[in-house]
Amino acid sequence: MNRMQLSFSNRIVVAVALFLVAPACGAAEPSIRELNRFAAAEAQQAVAVDATSYCAISSQSIGRYEKQTNKPIANWTAPADSTIQHLNSGLVYDGRLYCAHSNWPASPLKNTLEIFDAATLKPLESKAFPESEGAINWIDRQHDAWWIVFAFYGEEASRTQLVRYDDNWKPTGHWSFPEPVVQRFLPNSNSGGSFGPNGNLYVTGHDRGELYVLDVPEADGELIHVNTLAAPIAGQGIAWDRSDVGSLYGIVRGNKEVVAMQMSNTEEFTKLKRPVEWVRNKNNPVIPPRGEGFDATRCMNPWVVRSGDNYRVFYAGRDKAGTHTLGMATSAIGDLADWERTGPLFGSGAPGSFDAKWCVLPHAVKFGEAQWHLYYTGNAGRGVGLSSFPGLGVATSSDGINWTRSDRPPVLAPSGEYGTPDAIGIAGGSLIAVDQPDGSKQWWFYYTGCPTTGKAHALNQQKTICLAVSDDGIHWEKRGAVMLRNPERDYENIAVAGPVVLRDDDGLYRMWYSAIGTRWGFYSIAYAESDDGIYWRRGVKSDDNLQLTPNGSGWEKQMVEYPTVIREGDHLRMFYCGNGYGTTGIGTAVSK
To answer: How many CB atoms neighbour CB 388 within 10 A?
Structure first.
């Protein structure tokens, strides 16, 4: 069996951790970049994190601080007669803070989990472990199981092991650490650990500024060393922020600092090769709502294909009752003022299905001479925000005009696991065919994933851009997140979504996507480039990748979003929608 068959994290969550694919010589590489530092007196052992705060942890005290302001919220210090001697790490899960604790280096060794109310830091419970060999150094929750490391030091460091427990605290798996990683731990041991957003396990030693990236095989045995990443910390306990996919917290104990970091790549903020400037059509919107029919009150989510001398723009329309269905508008390429509209192309699904309420975000792709697939996003009529979109469906056609909706389950669905890029919702994007080394073609689907929701706008609207691959366009293998929000650019510091990807003749991948940030509070359209379709660059400085923004006092003053791009002679043609997610219709622009 090969590594892909054995890897527990890859089989359950994603097929490959894309941020950790081994790069070709000279290509971009995965990296961890620093976002911020916070002074915290308790930052001596570890940090734990939830949606709004972080907990700095020392051996006998914990401080809870607000993420954005570093304002102290709560604190706890062990009383003089406490049995708590050495808190090692922390995990916030389901409203509780779980701290790994041991009395190391005392003998006999005693290990406990100290459990606190995550909001108030009030002690709730202490769970003793019978294991008396190896100090409990960290705890995490993943794949509906608990994961704990029992650490040994110095000459015995190779005895350090990762143990998986079920909810009854029965051991269900044991793994040792690979020797090259153990050597980096010396003269100490594994100090921290946390499962990352694409399924790999990230661990630290006690003092080096390094993250060791590991795969966990399904069967007991040895962990697989995938990569070593430099990080602006000094070992100790770490925590991936599962409310903000791709964000990682660690500490520098010597300075008593908490460090906020983000997953990145070495070229993410380098110069763009082919940035684009756009000229808006003076007659926009070219496809407005008609006041009657399936698109009476909204025209959104355009997707354009060329048919001879015509453009076919597939889009989602909303009728007066609020129902969204898919339609198509056809126009001569040289006359974008006159559109013939057809719709709806098909209806919604049966009650209880993933697309029972709406069908939106169409994406039509020709698979052969007489085979078309129309991918779309279903709304089930339940849930909040993107969590009400539980899957991507497919309709088929022999002519690209008449469509038959499939009754099969969604071809792509949310993972359902907290902390993954598409945990609770999923929406469409774009599809391209990528040549493989053996001469075959593989379909790459860039789509929108929703990791979580919350009352705050930044949580409610948070989205990531993900990738799945397929040989037949029906059966898809997820490859995880390939682009995250950029906290340092105020037009995309909340979300990135709706990717459309083209590939130039020389192999350059070019992506246009909808970005949400605090600058407008709504969507603008941004741009990125990649040499391999995995690691993306966004330009050196803020606004380098900003393409279209809310504009004027009319149909697009609030937002511009959901672009689709097609080559038109020596130029590019973009269609996009405006205010209210297309309540003012669809416009177009051409590259200079």
So the answer is: 18
